[in-house]
Specification:
By secondary structure, the chain is mainly α. 75% of the residues lie in helices and 0% in strands. It contains 8 helices and no strands. Helix 1 packs across helix 2 and helix 4 packs antiparallel against helix 5. The relative contact order is 0.06.
């Protein structure tokens, strides 16, 4: 057997194996990029709603999806800085205002670095300013916060549910009749009737 015949046989045997392996490698890279893009798109879409579960989940996936390549070092550095600031506690309203402004700036930096690493050409001003968040969402969120706080205050016995006593003889009479009817009904039930 001649050398070119041996090489032909090797190519016939190894060609499909190498093609399959190359396709698997390309598929893995596409999936990695797709997961990174998904995180970026989620964060861009929810940047006006940083308390949403989708936003928080995407933030928590950054370490997992961006830490395995030197290409994403700036993303990881921006994430660490943002994450560090998220963990800070504001004691006063003034500190809270500064903290919120710093978070917005650091999130914009993170999204900018992610966009750059994934091939998007956004500037930081566009990232910070070009988002739609209806005023109604903000109002609903504020109202929900007030409701939760009020309910917690009641449950902790820090406040009572306000009640107004109405001196209405007719209403009192109907309430008494209702109670008597209920007592008769349950008495019959307990006596086995």
């Amino acid at each position: 057997m001649k050398l070119y015949e041996i090489l032909t046989i090797i190519a016939i045997v190894l060609g499909p194996i190498l093609a399959v392996q190359a396709e698997k490698l390309l598929q893995r890279r596409r999936e990695d990029k797709s997961r990174r893009l998904n995180i970026f798109k989620t964060l861009m879409a929810t940047r006006g709603s940083s308390l949403s579960f989708a936003h928080v989940e995407a933030l928590n996936r950054i370490d997992l999806e961006f830490s395995d390549d030197k290409k994403y070092q700036k993303v990881i550095a921006a994430w660490k800085e943002y994450f560090d600031n998220l963990g800070q506690k504001a004691q006063t309203d003034e500190q809270l205002t500064v903290w919120v402004a710093r978070n917005e700036e650091l999130l914009a930096n993170l999204l900018y670095e992610m966009g750059q690493s994934l091939g998007y050409k956004f500037d930081k001003v566009l990232i910070k300013r070009n988002m739609y968040s209806p005023a109604g969402h903000e109002r609903v969120e504020r109202e929900n916060e007030l409701i939760r706080k009020g309910l917690l205050d009641v449950l902790k016995a820090e406040t009572a549910i306000p009640m107004t006593i109405i001196n209405d003889e007719e209403a009192l009479k109907r309430q008494t009749e209702l109670q008597e009817a209920m007592l008769k009904y349950y008495k019959k039930k307990s006596d086995g009737e």
